[in-house]
Amino acid sequence: MRQVYHEHKHTLLLLSVLVVVILVGASLLLHPWWILTHSPLISQLTASNSHLNTTSGQGSHFKDLQLIGGFTVGTPAEVAQAASLGIRVVFEYGDPPSPESELGRALQAAHMQVIDGYISSYLQYYECHRTKTVKPPPPGAHPYCGRDSVPIASEEALLQLVERHLEEVKSNPLILGYWVLDDWVLWDPGSARELLVKFHALIQQYTPQRPAICGFGASLPSGFDTGWHDEVAANFTSEGCDMIGLYIFTVLQAQEDASANRYDWSMRSTLNAMFASLEKRGWDYVQTPLIGIAQAFGGPSTRTGLSWPLPSTADIVQQSQSFCQHGAIGIAYYGWDANLYGPHTQTPANNRAIQEGIRQGIAACQRIWRAAE
Q1: Higher-confidence residue: 39 or 86?
Q2: Residue 196 sits in a domain of what CATH number?
Q3: What rounded mean pLDDT belongs to the chain?
Q4: Which of 149, 179, 117, 128 is nearest to 11 (CA)?
């Protein structure tokens, strides 16, 4: 979701990087960066997905999580509004709020928790530096990131930062789990796989009760284009991912062409393609449950002349329902804020049709989950 996510807080991370460099500087010389390895609750499924059916009590111990989430819900006012729509969990890319902070108090008052996305941010900074140095884009490809703003030059430094973060947040009662993987470039497939395994080992060491959630993204299908690239699934590993989050959005396009009617909001072809790619790499629904992440934004971006197609209430409901009919044990919505949102971008914070789509989408999934119990 790199094209639409919130700007991360660089300053604290830069300080952390400096501390790690001082602590492990000598060992970094022995592990030079150039030799290292790249940008949204049911125990049984419905009859339409009988090939994924499982038995209650078997498989992942996260299968009953029934996560209902919203991305980048960053203010007390947004927390109250998200809670009124039925959101129970917020996904945050920056530092997770402490219980004593203003945002933390608002979350507690609304009985909401947090999926901490800071590990995916560490991985983004590491991969950004890597693609600026040892793995540049091939001719004609877009860069992975604009600026190498937080250079993390070695795997060891990255793991030190992740471990320090887990140590700091292990006692934070707001945190429900971790978002550990987001957008990835196609020219470096699978290069995060072993890092995800190492992240998972650290999570097990500090907070084994919290799942590591790996995100895999695609575009909404239009015509014969499924919007999915098989290479994206190369990062999947059952040893690193307790759950997966599939986010499927429209892409930025010329404002005059940005019509939601061009897309298949059921995502059937896209989901089938994503499942095939993941299964080929060892994904098993019983062991690694699925969260669907639906598009809840649209309209003009900060890029002149470019917009996202704006989903209607019915589009959001259809996307939500299709995720849950295809086995999602949780549903989430992107999102309240992002770095490419402009003053006229439509979001759950300012668009009533989007708000109603979220309400009805959650209700549709809850009906599917109850029917499968």
Answers
A1: 86
A2: 3.20.20.70
A3: 86
A4: 149
